[in-house]
Amino acid sequence: MPPTMKEKILDAAEKRVRGAGFSAMSFRDLAGDVGIKSASVHYHFPTKPDLGEALVDRYTSQFKEQLDQIDTSDLQTALNSYVALYSQALVLDESICLCAIMGAEAIGLPKNVNQKTKTFFKMNRTWLLELLQRKGVQNPDDTSCLIVAALEGGMIVASPSNDRAIFDQIAKAAIQSVTKI
Amino acid sequence: MPPTMKEKILDAAEKRVRGAGFSAMSFRDLAGDVGIKSASVHYHFPTKPDLGEALVDRYTSQFKEQLDQIDTSDLQTALNSYVALYSQALVLDESICLCAIMGAEAIGLPKNVNQKTKTFFKMNRTWLLELLQRKGVQNPDDTSCLIVAALEGGMIVASPSNDRAIFDQIAKAAIQSVTKI
DNA sequence: TTGCGACTATCTATCAGTTGATAGGCAATC
DNA sequence: GATTGCCTATCAACTGATAGATAGTCGCAA
Predict the structure, then answer these.
(1) Given pLDDT bands bounded at 50, 70 and 90, which one contains residue A69?
(2) Nearest CA in chain B to A154
(3) Are B166 and A145 in contact (CB under 8 A)?
(4) Residue nearest to nucleotide C13 (CA to C1')
(5) Which residues contact residue B15 at a Cβ distance below 8 angstroms, ignoring those fewer than 6 apart?
(6) Measured between CB atoms, which of A139, A141, A150 is closest to B146?
(7) Which PROSITE patterns does its entry note (chains A, B) (predicted)?
């Protein structure tokens, strides 16, 4: 089935937020992107906080689906697949992780959006924690925290330089730390 | 000597950007903060990119000054002092590191601002690298990258939850990884 | 000493463009 | 005939930026 207008709006919003941030995205931008008027965007998402909440919610669900498809039989392979998801999210000069920017802007964002962003990070940490515990890794709690922070931070450090190598190096270092903390 | 108007504007701008982001900050906000009119802010900083550049530049200089005051005779003490600088920058519900948000917004920001943000991260990595090399730590290059990313990312992960414990845990894990990568 | 020009730092007033949001109409569908 | 999904039209507020006026300060020459 073809995407609904609601989905098309969310697609456009995700692209814009991941590119320039939540506060830099407007209803008129989105309307232009999907070929309707801004008043019609308000029909689907009454307010900007509503839109933001739906956006992070959908992003989290989609990310979770991808996590669930990762083959976790081998630890190193699983971690590499996990990093690959973040690596995919980082398209230099185009986009970073949605929740990296939502987290960075958090102080100025509505509470409902922050709640959803919090859930995204929590979900990531939980997934990693379970994996590391199952594999008998030492300090799984600290390590899962570190990996999520390093990957999100890696995008932010790499983005102004537009240098993918920095992100890759950080990701590599984060994975190496697993077996050694 | 009392702060100049230029400095007062930068102070106000830093507070606002670290709270809500660069694109969410306006010349009128700043004018109100320091008690002049927005046209007068333009006198000191002709355009918004000019202001952004000066802002990151000053932030980097001030951070560098603090780095240079750290006692580096003992590795653990030095790392703890380094983390303390970031910890200071993270005032939950109020502000995160200026360059965390500038890095997150990078794609939509003017080039001159990104250049300065890049310099901030580079300066951090260089300082850490020299410290780790001097102390004979293994893989100093990877490790310095990881620490910067983890701390910046730690703020972003902690901010939506408004939970300082998450940042502290990440910082601890990052420091622990030094002796073990 | 006086006076003049340049400079600094602010002001008022204004601009065109954008913002999130609402009211109300209109056609298609169920 | 109610609901859905869009539309036009409009709103007050805000945005970055500019033009031009004004008052104060400083250095220097008559």
Answers:
(1) very high
(2) B149
(3) yes
(4) B39
(5) B33, B95
(6) A150
(7) HTH_TETR_2
Question: What CATH number is given to the structural domain containing B89?
Answer: 1.10.357.10
Residue in A with minimal Cα distance to B95: A107
Residues facing residue A91 across a β-bridge = A95
B68: in domain: yes
Q: Is residue B34 part of a domain?
A: no
Say which residues have a Cβ less than 8 Å from residue B47's Cβ, sequence separation at least 6.
none
Q: What is the pLDDT of residues B131-149, one digit of tens each?
A: 999 999 999 999 999 999 9
* Cα distance between residue B96 and residue B91, in whole Å: 6
Domain that holds residue A48: 5-178
Provide the 3-class DSSP secondary structure of residue A95. Answer: strand
| Predicted confidence (pLDDT) per residue in A26-39, tens digit | 999 999 999 999 99
Nearest to A153 among B114, B156, B166 (CB): B156
Gap from B24 CA to C27 C1', Å: 40
User: pLDDT value at position B181?
Assistant: 55
Q: Is residue B120 part of a domain?
A: yes
Q: Give the pLDDT score at B180.
A: 67
Number of domains present in the structure of chain A: 1
